Amino acid sequence: MTLENCILLATLLFAIGVYGLLTRRQAVAMLLCVELMLNASNLVFVAFARHAGGPGQILAMFALAITVAEVAVGLAIVLLLYRRHGHTAVDAASEARE
Amino acid sequence: MNPDIAQRILSQATLDASGPFLALALGVLVLVFLELLPALAALRQIVFLGSLAAAAWAATRTLFGPEIAAFEGTYVANSTTSWWALLFVASALIAWIFGRRYYRDEARFEGEHDILLLTAASGMVLMAGSRDLLVFFVGLETLSVPLYALSGFRRARRESVEAGLKYFVLGAFAAAIYLMGAALLYAGTGTIALAGFQERSELLETPLALTGLALIAASLFFKISVFPFHLWVPDVYQGAPSPVTTFMATGTKAAAFAFLLPLSFALPPESAGLVAAIALITMAAGNLGALVQTDMKRLLAYSGVAHAGTMLLALAGMHADPESGGASQAVLFYMAAYTFTAGGAFGLLTMLETQGGRPVTIDGLRGLARQRPGVAAALALFMLSLGGIPATGGFLGKYLVFSVAVRADMIAAAVVGVLISVVALGYYLRIIVAMYMQPEDATRPVPAESRPLSSAMALACAAMVLVLGVLPGWFLANVR
How far is the alpha carbon of A38 from chain B, nearest alpha carbon, in Å? Predict the structure, then answer.
C-alpha cells in the first residue's frame, strides 16, 4: 500500500468518526466513533514510520495504551449512568440546562 | 539496560527537572497502597499534603535557576514551568480543602477522590514541562482521565454522572483530534519535538503540517474553553461536584495555556489576526452568556470562558510583541490571579452549597452580607477581581494582557476587549448588589456551620488576590 493510500484511508476513517460523533447520541456509538478517529491517527503514525523512519511506531503504541485507559474510565461512566439512571444518551445530559 | 543510557537518564539534572512530577506521582502510588490497608486510612491526608508540599519544594529548586532539559530534551524545567507547577499545587490544594466534608453519600470513596485529584495534578505538571508532542499527550490524558471520573463522582446524582459522561465524550473527541494533529505534524516534519519544529521551520509551512497545527490548536482550545469549543463548559461545570469544578476551572485551563505558550512559535505569524478574533468572540460569548444566568456555578463557568478569551488575546499578540516573554508573563500572572480568584469564589460557593444543601443561585445570595459578613466580603472581593477592578490581581492581569496587545500593534482588538470586559461588570456587580442591598429571603436562612479549614483557605485566596493586586512588583520582577 502506498503512503498516499494510507493517508487517504486514515482521512476517511477520521472523517467517518467525526461524522458519527456529531450525528449519534448513544454514548457507546460515540465511543466507537472516537476509537475510529484515534486509530486513523495511529495509521498515519505507523505509515510514516515505515516510510520515513522516526518514532512513529512508539507513538502508536503509547497512543494505544493511553486510549485504552481512557476508554476504561469512559465505559465505567456509561455503565454507571445506565444502571443508576436508565439511559446512555449524551444529549439528555443537557437536562441540567434551564 | 545499557548502563550508558541509564546514566544519561538517571542523572541529577533529570531528577531536579522532574522533581515536582515525581513527588506527585510517588504520592499517588503511596495513596493507592494505603487504600489496601484500611487501618492506615488516617495517613492518607498526611501523604496527600506531604506530596503537594514536596512538589512545591521541588519546584522552588528550579525557580530561579537556568533551564534544565531532561529525557533527551522532551521535558524541561525552567523558571516558567516551575511557577506553573506551583500554581497547579495551589489549585489542587484549594480544590482539596474546599472538598473536605463536601461528599456525603460518597464519603467512603474519599481516598479514591484524593488519588484522582493528585493524579490529575501530576498530569498538569507534565503538560507544562513537556517539549514534545507525545509527552504532552501523556500529560493531557493523565490530567483528563481522572477528571472524567471526578466529574461523575457523585454517583447518586444524575446531573453529576451526566456531566462526567459529557466531559468524557467531548474530552475523548478532543484527544482524538489532538492525536490526529500530532500525526499530521509528524508526517509533515518528521519530528514531534518542539525543538525539531524550530530547526525545520520551513517544513511547518507545508499543508500537512499546517493542518496538524490547526487540529492541535483546536483540541487545546477545547481544553481552555475557547469559542466555538466552549459549549460544554456550563453543563459540565454545573453538573460536576463543586470542588472538582474549582479544580477544572483553574488547573486545566492553566495547564493547556502552559503548553500553548511554548508551542505558539510554530503558528504562522499570519494567524495572529485569527487568534485575536477568536479571543474577542470568546470574551463576548462568555460575558453575554453569563449576563442571563441565575445559577452561580453556571455564571462563573461563562465568566471563565470570557477570561480564557482574554488570555488568548495575549497569545495573539505574542509574535508581534517587541518585548520577548511579555505575553508569557502576562498569561502566567493572569492565570495566577484567576486561580486564586475563581478558586476562592468556587470554594465559597462549595461551602454555601454544602451548608444550605442546595445549589447556590443569585437570589439565594440575597442578604448574605447581614447573615455572613465575612463570606459576603470575600465573595465581593473575588467578584471585583474577576471584573478587573483596580487594587485586585484581576485588574493587573487584564492590564498586562491588554498591554501585550497594544505593544503588538493590535490597538483595535485591545479597545474592543476592554469594552467587552466592562459589560462583564454588569453581572459581577449584580451579585454584590444581591448580597449587600437586597433583603434576605427569610424562609431560606443559610445555616452557619463552623468550617475553619475552608474559611482559612478562602482568607488565603483573598489575601493572594490583594497581594497580587497591590504589591505585584516582586512577582513581575521574578515571573518570566
Answer: 5
Kindly state the average pLDDT of the residues A19-37: 91
Contact present, B232 and B305 (Cβ < 8 Å): no
CB contact under 8 A, A38 and B144: no
Of B145, B176, B186, the CB nearest to A56: B186
Give me the residue from B165, B169, B179 closest to A38, CB to CB.
B179
- Regions in chain B scoring below 50 on pLDDT: none
Asked if A41's CB is within 8 angstroms of B182's CB, the reply is yes
- Note the pLDDT of residue B40: 84
CA distance B235 to chain A (A): 6
pLDDT at A93: 45
pLDDT at residue A96, as a whole number: 43
Domain boundaries, chain A: 3-97
Of the candidates B165, B169, B179, which has its C-beta nearest A41's C-beta? B179
Residue B222 CB contacts under 8 Å (≥ 6 apart), including other chains: B170, B171, B173, B174, B177, B229
Kindly state whether residue B394 falls inside one of the protein's structural domains.
Answer: yes
pLDDT number for residue B72: 82
Rounded-to-integer distance, Cα B62 and Cα B132, Å = 20
Q: How far apart are CA B333 and CA B468, in angstroms?
A: 9
CB contact under 8 A, B137 and A84: no
Instruction: For chain A, say whether B155 makes contact (Cβ under 8 Å).
Output: yes
Our count of domains for chain B comes to 1
CATH code of domain A3-97: 1.10.287.3510
pLDDT in tens, B100-113: 888 877 777 888 89
For position A97, what pLDDT does the model report? Answer: 44
Cα B297 from Cα B239, distance rounded (Å): 9
Strand partners, B193: B132
CB distance B432 to B380 below 8 Å: yes
Cross-chain Cβ contact B235/A40 below 8 Å: no
Q: What's the gap in Å between the CA of A26 and the closest CA on chain B?
A: 11
What pTM was estimated for this model as a whole? Answer: 0.92
Chain B from 165 to 204: CB within 8 A of any A CB: 165-166, 168-169, 172-173, 175-177, 179-180, 182-184, 186-187, 190-192
Residue B475's domain spans which residues? 270-480
Assess whether the previous peptide bond of B228 is cis (omega < 30° from 0): yes
Q: Which of B326, B345, B344, B346 is nearest to B334 (CA)?
A: B326
Domain assignment present for residue B150? The answer is: no
Residue A98: pLDDT band with limits 50, 70, 90:
very low
Q: Inter-chain contact A92–B162, Cβ cutoff 8 Å?
A: yes
- For residue A1, the model assigns a pLDDT of 67
Q: What's the pLDDT score for residue B70? A: 84
